[in-house]
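Here comes just one.
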Amino acid sequence: MTDFASLLQPDRGQPAHLVHTVRKAGFDDWLAGQPERARSAVEAALFKGKPGEFALLPGAKPEDWAVAVGMPETAGPWDLAGIVARLPAGAYRLAEGDAGAAALGWLLAHHRFDRYRGEPEAIPQRVLLTGEAARIDEAVRIAGAVALVRDLVDTPAGDMGPAELAQAVEAAANANGANFTVIQGDALAQGYPMVAAVGRAATRERGPRLIELEWGDPAHPRVAIVGKGVCFDSGGLDIKPSSGMLLMKKDMGGAAHALALASLVMQARLPVRLHLLIPAVENAISADAFRPGDILKSRKGLTVEIGNTDAEGRLILGDALARAVEHEPVLLLDFATLTGAARVALGPDLPALFVNEDALADDLLAAATRVSDPIWRLPLWAGYADMLKSTIADINNAGEGGMAGSVTAALFLQKFVPVTTAWAHFDTFAWRPTAKPGRPRGGDALGLRAAWDMLRVRFPA
């Protein structure tokens, strides 16, 4: 993991190159205040303060050079990420104010997933100095959480099965003094029948399990976080085409988000009783695979007719949600790479948010705006519940007609959550198909920072 703490340091007046953050609207005033040598360099670079523009500014001595970078009119976390790759190793400070939220982009621009490279890329260490010393730890923790999601999602399924996912949770538990348990085998089949059914076609080494972590004072409000841990999804007997399987190592992206969020809660020592649950499976194909038309019993007792074995994520989440609400949490969040329908509706950048309480939805949307981690609320439209009707079981796991797929998936999950429990469901992509500054192509945290900011405000440490 990248040593983010070494890249963001308190400003104690140590030598550093200045970084001028310039916006187009204030360009003329800024330029008028620069020495002649800097103005000449700006003119030669055709620099006007537009976002993404860059100019090298000479100083009175060769070692006193500075840089100017064009910034968007509205500040965001990725404003500095684009310049990092242009800078050599060294210390830098902003000439105008402090980095604020943009420190996140500075940090994550240094992160690489190079586990499988024979010669990992050498990354110059550019240290950003900040006068906001109190915010350093928070920025470093958030960068670490985002990097954790990226690394877990980017790891191929051959090296990130249910056992390895459990090891990642155990490492977080050990680092924070939390209780860690794993349920598998007969105990899983008895207590979590849908988790067991979805994962039973995998090899013994990659068998299904329910991973749990508990942390914090039992007297504090209980917060449950659930993450979909499908470590690879073949589609089961309703097999995906090869193109559909290509990115299915990321189908445990919900679990990665849940673990990263739980880690933030523990590291910041929020006054909550944390309960993390990750149902971890591989949706494989064998003679023992669960079949279309099967009837599964759930932990809650509801029977589920299998209309499609490729709608497996909601099955394992149903059992995990049923377990979570047995302890009556004041708040329940779940993350899942659940439906392609959400991506068709909202694209890769916007997680679909389903919430059963308006106050919670308002808090999450406000947090998303504060930290520039966009989410979009979609309706738990009760009128579509009929799409999940079964003639021989309590519910079907797949809606008929192919319409409102993300809504019907959320309605399926809602069957396992009491109306008295405040609940939010994130249908996130967990993947970035096109690179942007500070955000390489690959696994990414989408909705994580919004959820964390909501928790940080609701449960101040």
Observations:
- DSSP finds 15 helices and 20 strands in the chain.
- The domain at 4-110 is CATH 3.40.220.10 (Leucine Aminopeptidase, subunit E; domain 1).
- The CA atoms of residues 357 and 422 lie 6 Å apart.
